[in-house]
Amino acid sequence: MKYDCTLLVSSCDAYEDILDIFFELLHNYWPSLNYQIVLSTETLNYCNKYFNIINIHPQNINCAWTTRISECLKQIKSKYVILILDDFFYTIM
Predict the structure, then answer these.
(1) Would you say residue 54 lies in a domain?
(2) Is residue 57 part of a domain?
(3) Cβ(46)–Cβ(53) under 8 Å?
(4) Does residue 45 sit within a domain?
(5) Do 24 and 88 form a contact (C-beta atoms < 8 A)?
(6) What is the pTM (predicted TM-score) of this model?
(7) Could you give the number of structural domains in the chain?
(8) pLDDT for 28-56, tens place per residue?
(9) Which of 45, 63, 82, 90 sees the fewest Cβ atoms within 10 Å?
(10) Is residue 35 in a domain?
């Protein structure tokens, strides 16, 4: 499947405990999401019951957050990228 847009979720290994909650809320509030989903962490290989997640890791696990995102963006082939952070929880007000 060719994707015109990728959802890039920026995280880190230390935030592994919030990923299930994040993706549960993403599924609840964006059930029709059909973009490729990429998760950027240092070393974590995360799987989720709702989404097929592509895990991308930096060559140097001790690199800066900005370097990790830059390396990740080079591997994404879609025309558009939506960058979101894992600790921004979705809610309806």
Answers:
(1) yes
(2) yes
(3) yes
(4) yes
(5) no
(6) 0.89
(7) 1
(8) 999 999 999 999 999 999 999 999 999 99
(9) 45
(10) yes
